[in-house]
Amino acid sequence: MSEKISNEKKEEIQKPSADELRKELIRIQKKSEFRKTLKQAIFAVLVAGAIAVLISSFFVTVLRISGNSMYPSLETGEIVLARNTEDFQVGEMIAFYYNNKVLVKRVIGSPGDWINIDEAGNVSINGNPIEEDYLVTKKSLEPTDIKFPYQVPENRYFVLGDNRSESIDSRSNSVGCVTKEQLIGKVFFRVYPFGRMGILKTGK
Questions:
Q1: Which of 6, 109, 158, 185 could form an SS bridge with 170, CB 3.0 to 4.6 Å?
Q2: With 60 as the cut, is the pLDDT of residue 11 above it?
Q3: pTM
Q4: Farthest-apart Cα atoms in the chain, separation
Q5: ∠175-178-179 over CA atoms, to 5°?
Q6: HEC profile for the chain?
Q7: How far apart are CA 165 and CA 117, in angstroms?
Q8: What's the pLDDT band for 186 if we cut at 50, 70, 90?
Q9: What residues pair up with 105 in beta bridges, in sequence order?
Q10: What is the pLDDT of residues 89-133, one digit of tens each?
């Protein structure tokens, strides 16, 4: 009889307590979180590797956005790629040097084009209005200190920021039109943040 009672007590002792179960659950959760973090880290490494290959293969420049002149198309802290080229279409973004800084704007006019911006901020090229479907913020003529219509000089590009009322661009003599010597290239792909990764929108 006493031996039977002893065995029953032994079985009771071997049963895990609520605290032990809670600790085991926490351990399993931490293991799951570790695996998730590991997967994210591997993904980031793969993306970085792909970018490195892209850079080495296609002469791409990596740029970090600063300022709000292209908001909301591009935001401060985002990382983008610029392909080294001088072949641009209306609506494409370009990066260029200006006073030891790098600026990103949209190409609106090429050498010889006549650019006009009316009081409401509507843009036309050589007398033809353009549809800027990439714009989200309100159109604006200001800030400007040049007279329209304006002809783009030879070997230069007329550029505008997407955040028209805040952007200092070719509407101002302080920036003016972009020369070929200033060019870095065409901004075509957003790398970071990963949630917004993808080809950047262009259009007329």
A1: 158
A2: no
A3: 0.70
A4: 109
A5: 130
A6: CHHHHHHHHHHHHHCCCHHHHHHHHHHHHHHHHHHHHHHHHHHHHHHHHHHHHHHHHHCEEEEECCCCCCCCCCCCCCEEEEECCCCCCCCCEEEEEECCEEEEEEEEECCCCEEEECCCCCEEECCEECCCCCCCCCCCCCCCCCCCCEECCCCEEEEECCCCCCCCCCCCCCCCCEEHHHEEEEEEEEEECHHHCEECCCCC
A7: 13
A8: very high
A9: 94
A10: 899 999 999 998 999 999 999 999 999 999 999 999 999 999 898
Give the integer Cα–Cα distance in Å for 3 and 109.
Answer: 97
Geometric angle at alpha carbon 36, from 30 and 39, rounded to 5°: 140
- CATH hierarchy code of domain 60-199: 2.10.109.10
How far, in Å, CA of 32 to CA of 13, rounded?
30
Tell me which residues are annotated as active site: 69, 105
pLDDT band of 185, cuts 50, 70, 90: very high
